[in-house]
Amino acid sequence: MSCHHIMIDLETEGTRAGCVIRQIGAASFNPFTGEVDRTFEMNLDVEEQRSRFGLVSDPKTLVWLQALPANIQEAMTRDPKPVGEVIMALIRAFDWSHPDMRLWCHGATFDEPILRELIIRFGIEVGLKDLVPWGYLKARCTRDRLELAGVKVERDAAKSHTGLEDCIKQIKALSEATRIIEGWKKAKAEMDVVIADCTEEERFPGELPVETLGPFKTPTFGPSWAPAVSMPTEPLTVLDEKAIR
């Protein structure tokens, strides 16, 4: 598989769709090897988003942003470009129509829906429908896969909270998690082959009797977790069956 998966990371002034976006970072990559192909990072005009597209800033998020190191604040605000220029550059930067394309972000309710909302509003403004370049079935969340595989994103405090740097870190963690899960799948496939060649007694040791026994016979052995139960050696009569119900 080539580098058809795309990771996005936004730096925003809010936490939900309809908030102002300061910066968009993105990179195409191979989820199995972690190889990164194309990269993208652009800052957006904040005032245009507010006045033209009705996007808003969350006061709590603004306070949090102001507490970031000066170099990070400068990195996500220098040389901002018009919204339309950024969106069209992002669309042209990657192959969104490839059948293997998947769009990844670190949080299902953050980057993808926020970016989708901005593109939709821009499309409405300029009279372009369906401008969002990815299908709704293509979006993926890194958190699920990382949690399943027990992998964490390694953050560099000096570089975190810039879109492209975060993308690269998330790609590294995601590819590690993918390799772990692929290892599990390979091990299961190998075990399935082994199990297919086993007899029933070999597949379920300690749970099946060695010889075929009737329903009212005492089994020669049972599962280790089962309590010892004394079974009748003769079939019950109809009356006996009613009595024990």
TrEMBL record:
Ranges where the 3'-5' exoribonuclease Rv2179c-like domain occurs: 4-176
GO molecular function, one term: nucleic acid binding
Pfam assignment, any one: Rv2179c-like
Name under which the protein is recorded: 3'-5' exoribonuclease Rv2179c-like domain-containing protein
Organism field: Candidatus Phycosocius bacilliformis
Organism classification: Bacteria, Pseudomonadati, Pseudomonadota, Alphaproteobacteria, Caulobacterales
